[in-house]
Amino acid sequence: MIHIKEGLVVKILKNHDNAVEVLVNINEKNYKAIAYPLITGKVSLGDSVILNTTAVDLNLGTGGYHFVIFNKSYNTISPYTNGHIMKLKYTPMQIKNLTVEEQYPEIIDSFESLNGMPIITGTIHSMLPAVAAVIKSIMNNCKIAYIMTDGGALPIGFSHTVRDLKKKAIIDCTITCGNAFGGDFETLNLYTALIAAKKIAKADAIIIIMGPGHAGTGTKYGFTGMEIANNAHVISSLGGVPICIPRVSFADKRKRHYGISHHYLTAIAFHCLVSCEIAFPLFSESKKNYIMNQYKKVNLDKKHRIHFLEEDTLSIMKKNQLYIKTMGRTMDEDPYFFKTAGACAVLLTKLLS
């Protein structure tokens, strides 16, 4: 059940093109909130707004934000986008988008193959800066396209990471597919997102990862990261080579996520139907033995090609001032999560060269 409250905008905290962070007063207490102009129109100081407060009320992981549903200062909002394709369809928030499929039908129809292009895909949004920064550091003039699926947050404007990576020219364009929205290009599905990245954005490197807010339930199959298997299927079916980033941590004390996460092993060892490229960083002997025992137990190495590669991910991220956390842990507290993503980025550059 949705929790709804009315609040007054008392301060504009940050004003971005696709997301506005505000401070709202509800019953004489101030809270952070986010408005998406595509949905709410502009938000200004003194506006009375209707808020979805569900996640904060339930203490869920949205960064402590409420979300603006409606701005009472407007009786009507005129959309400033063309197109006829709806996202968030059949909900009160459905919005129209001008999609690649509508704009470039001849490119979609004439597409034949990715011609062996290696494409990297992961399961957690915090992998993105490590991958993108390492690729850019090795291939300085490389044009990187980020495809955001709809497995996590749907508005790309929610991601501070994407905004920062674009500002620093580490990623060059964004594509939101499915019900995700707000990218430089909009597509209906991952197939057309890949075609758009290759043929329209002219990307040299492509990264597919969901937005912030992956979810898990502690059950074998109940987690959003299962989509990585289907991402690999789509890449392969279009003639690309999937590189699937392992989720690795020696800082997570939960047994199911220690070393290689069971999320990754479930998806890639048991339910991925195509052969993928997988990279790990260089480990100490004890850590490498632990990782190898994990993947050999499920025959991961019999199905996929595994590499151990030197990388310099942490220093590259620090040089670019990308101080990212994963599951609340910094890169120094959980280095192998980021180093593994970086190793896959190194592999991508090797396959591209």
Written account of the structure:
The chain is built from 13 helices and 17 strands. Strand 2 (20-26) and strand 3 form a beta hairpin. The chain is an alpha/beta fold and 353 residues long. The chain folds into 2 domains: 4-71, Beta Barrel (OB fold (Dihydrolipoamide Acetyltransferase, E2P)); 102-352, Rossmann fold, CATH 3.40.50. Helix 5 packs across helix 12. The chain has helices at 37-40, 54-57, 100-103, 105-110, 127-138, 160-167, 190-200, 227-237, 262-270, 285-297, 300-303, 313-319, 335-352, and strands spanning 4-15, 20-26, 29-35, 48-52, 66-71, 85-87, 95-97, 118-121, 144-148, 173-177, 185-187, 205-208, 241-244, 248-249, 259-260, 277-281, 305-309. The protein has a 6-stranded parallel β-sheet with strand order 11-10-9-12-8-13, with helices on both faces.
Top keywords for this entry?
alpha/beta, OB fold (Dihydrolipoamide Acetyltransferase, E2P), 2 domains, six-stranded parallel sheet
